[in-house]
Amino acid sequence: MAAAHLAEDLKEEVTCPVCMDYFTHPVTLGCGHSFCHLCLLGSCGEVDQPSFCPECRRAYQMRDLEPNHRLRKLASIARNLRPYLLQIREERITCEKHKEEQNLFCEEDQSFLCASCFQSQEHNGHTVQPLNKAAEASRDKLQETLDLLWKEVETIQNMLAKERQNEEIWNEQTNAWRELVGAEYGRLFNFLNDEEKQYFNRLAWDEKENLQKLRESEVRLSQHLQKLKEEIINIEEICQKPNLQLLQVSGDTFRKIKSLLIDRPEPARHPLTMTCITAMFEMMNKFRVNVTLDPASASPYLIVSNDLKTVRNGGCLQNVPFTPDRFEDDIILGAQVFTSGIHYWEVHVGDSQEWTVGVCKESLSRNPEVPLVHGDVFVITYIQDEDTYTVISNCSQILRQSAFPIRRILSKIYSSKLSTMFMMSD
């Protein structure tokens, strides 16, 4: 029993108060208490912050730890003596089947064996060792696992400290970026506000200049009109005169009328200054969608490209199967269907002398003899000979018809790229 007490006293002196096992790489604090190095790492607080002794709570810094080599040697000696000290108080177990002491251990079955069990066929070929040797091997494996786990704890703690540092850095960067973005958008807002004022000032100047030109033109035209009326009255009076008097004044009258007709005043020209709005296309691109053509809806006269982006009239019927979705007229639909939201796309019409583009409901009748229902279509039609375009919402209602050449307007807006745009919302 005395030996057992000595073993307990020795173990107590070389045991870490944190992990309750023999010291592994022990370090000693300024207060005199010793612990495993990994155990202190597991119980310390934030990086670069003072920690406290697990026993007396005295503050210390991780950089002040001192390795205790002598205690490490004593712990190693006690660990090597452990199998012999444990034999002093080792309990003996008896095999219930053979009534013999079980002093062997089978690795495969993880069971205790007696000599008779070892000689049976059941454990033939198994790895069987004496209990003390098997226990020591298992203890060494557990110690290796424990060391591995503590190293993993140290690694995770370092990773956690790094993540917390990254979190602070990220917060600082995010706040800095937030301030930068706010400042940039503030400058952009001021820029757009100033640009808007410039456009309005330019428009007001154009309005003033054009109104003045129109009023001056009205005065000239009114004066010229008055002269024409006076000459009409004069000619009517001359026509009533005798032949001799008529011939005497008709020459001067013809010259005066000719001069009056030649000097006819031209109407005032009042072009409106058109400007591109900053970032308008960028804003519209937010709603841009990729529209492709649906060959199943194409008229038999139309030929669709392989990429489903271009269509042209082939001039004759194509060898295509007839389906209920196919139009008889020169019409083709887009493959995409939109039921809500805002969508933007462009249609390049090239040098076509006549074209119609727009949007329609999916239920639009394919039969050209069926009258359109109000609201089924919204299209823009252009005819080059008439140099006009027309916006139509159904077969009987024309919303707007203008004599302004759409080609010139579009080329001015889109930098000589002839295209049309549609935007639709629910």
Q: End-to-end distance, in Å? A: 93 Å
**Helix content range of the residues, please?**
40-55%
Strand order in the sheet with the most strands: 12-13-14-15
Radius of gyration: 51 Å
What low-confidence regions span 5 or more consecutive residues with pLDDT below 50?
A: 395-421
Q: Please, how many helices?
A: 8
- Which structural class do you get from the secondary structure elements? alpha+beta
Detailed description of the structure:
The protein has 426 residues and is of the alpha+beta class. It is 44% helix and 15% strand. The chain has eight helices and 16 strands. The strands form six sheets. A four-stranded antiparallel β-sheet has the order 12-13-14-15, with no helix packed on it. A three-stranded antiparallel β-sheet has the order 2-1-5. A three-stranded antiparallel β-sheet has the order 7-6-8. It is elongated, with a radius of gyration of 51 Å.
Give the SSE layout.
Elements: H1 2-13, E1 26-28, E2 34-36, H2 37-43, E3 51-52, E4 59-60, E5 66-67, H3 69-88, E6 104-106, E7 111-113, H4 115-119, E8 128-130, H5 131-239, H6 243-262, H7 280-285, E9 302-304, E10 311-313, E11 343-348, E12 354-360, E13 377-383, E14 388-392, E15 398-402, H8 406-413, E16 419-424
Antiparallel strand pairs: 1-2, 1-5, 3-4, 6-7, 6-8, 9-10, 11-16, 12-13, 13-14, 14-15
Helix pairs in contact: 1-3, 2-5, 5-6
Q: In short, what is this structure?
A:
By secondary structure, the protein is of the alpha+beta class. It has helices spanning 2-13, 37-43, 69-88, 115-119, 131-239, 243-262, 280-285, 406-413, and strands at 26-28, 34-36, 51-52, 59-60, 66-67, 104-106, 111-113, 128-130, 302-304, 311-313, 343-348, 354-360, 377-383, 388-392, 398-402, 419-424. It is 44% helix and 15% strand.
